Amino acid sequence: MNRSAVNPWLHRFAVLTAVATLALIAVGGLVTSHGVGMAVPDWPTTYGYNMFLFPISKWMGGIFYEHSHRLLASAVGFLTIILMVWLWLKEPRGWLRWLGVAAFFGVVLQGVLGGLRVVLAWDNLGIVHAALAQSFFVLLCAIALVTSRWWIELPHRDMVIFDRHGLRRLLLAVTLLIFGQLVLGATMRHQHAGLAIPDFPLAYHKLWPPMDAASVTLYNQHRLEVNDPNPITAFQILLQMIHRFIALLIFCAVVYTARKMRKYLSPRHLLSRYSLVWVGLIALQAMLGAATIWSNKAADIATAHVVVGAISLTTGALLTIISFRVLMPARVAVPSTTVPAPSPVMSGKVLPGDVHVTTRSN
């Protein structure tokens, strides 16, 4: 397998593309939070203008958010094309070159979905658009990770720890759970029905609100009194209750994962330290979710909820990737020499026989 030389500028460019994508997710969140996804009714033109020549004097109200979203999306597409070409020309690892190609097709598909969402005025496409945005951000962050000096030089200081406690599968399962939660959140946001449940931590003053027809009619009568735009349905209430339940489940799962990392690796191990950051992000995300309700879905808070959700998902994905890099399946026998002391980078409290020195290609 080819070994890659460290290319700091390629890594920095990958980081730049990932940061631009996070900014794009934030602006997209503002578009949805302000309910202005259809402020510009045509695509790929903007009110008949070439997108890049649309007069700044006409950037008003919802048009500002939607048009900014389109321009930033174009910039991310341009950066992604450069990243793909750069990887293809300079990166010796074939699988990484193909990841660049996947990113290119991902950004093209994302652009087409966004355009069709406008042309067809179909809300469900907005859900797919939002889910793909999260996946695309994870992909770019993964490319940034594997082009880093830390990743490339890891084999030279590698210490293998056998995963005897299912840590890799646990990280993967929790990350997939977060992705499902984000898709559910996107489904709620693209219903455009305001808050299906206006209070928290209770729901209509109960642990589990009634969802029969008479109760939903009563809820809607109150909503109309406070000028909510559209009536809600029992299905939307159920979606939000499931969203709350999964949020609690994710918080418990991430805390459990962090505790398990510290128990079976060590507090100093890379995975242990960053799993604590993950816990902090999930706690922040939970607070933002509550604040979204208490603020009656204020656009800036709802958007922050989307952004922190993306960062939480990516943190889980990167921890999972790293775990598959530094932890070996317990059933794999590696010719090695057992050493008594761990390295500074991957140091951890391990059981005898768990730690081995070996080399692996990147």
Q: How are strands sequenced across the largest beta sheet?
A: 2-1-4-3
* Category from helices, strands and their pairing: mainly alpha
**Oligomeric state of shown chains:** single chain
> Radius of gyration in whole Å, from Cα?
23 Å
Please tell me about this protein's structure.
The chain is mostly helical. The chain contains 10 helices and 4 strands, in the order H-H-H-H-H-E-H-H-H-H-H-E-E-E. The protein has helices spanning 8-33, 62-90, 94-120, 123-146, 149-153, 167-189, 213-225, 234-264, 270-294, 299-326; strands at 159-163, 327-329, 337-338, 355-357. A 4-stranded mixed beta sheet has the order 2-1-4-3. It starts with 7 loop residues before the first helix and ends in a 5-residue tail after the last strand. Residues 336-362 have low confidence and may be disordered.
Topology overview:
Elements: H1 8-33, H2 62-90, H3 94-120, H4 123-146, H5 149-153, E1 159-163, H6 167-189, H7 213-225, H8 234-264, H9 270-294, H10 299-326, E2 327-329, E3 337-338, E4 355-357
Parallel strand pairs: 1-2
Antiparallel strand pairs: 1-4, 3-4
Helix pairs in contact: 1-2, 1-4, 1-10, 2-3, 3-4, 4-6, 4-10, 6-8, 6-10, 8-9, 9-10
For the structure shown, list the relevant keywords.
362 residues; mainly alpha; four-stranded mixed beta sheet; 10 helices; 64% helix; 4% strand; flat; disordered C terminus
What's this model, at a glance?
The chain is mainly alpha-helical. It is 64% helix and 4% strand. Mean pLDDT is 87; it is low at 336-362.
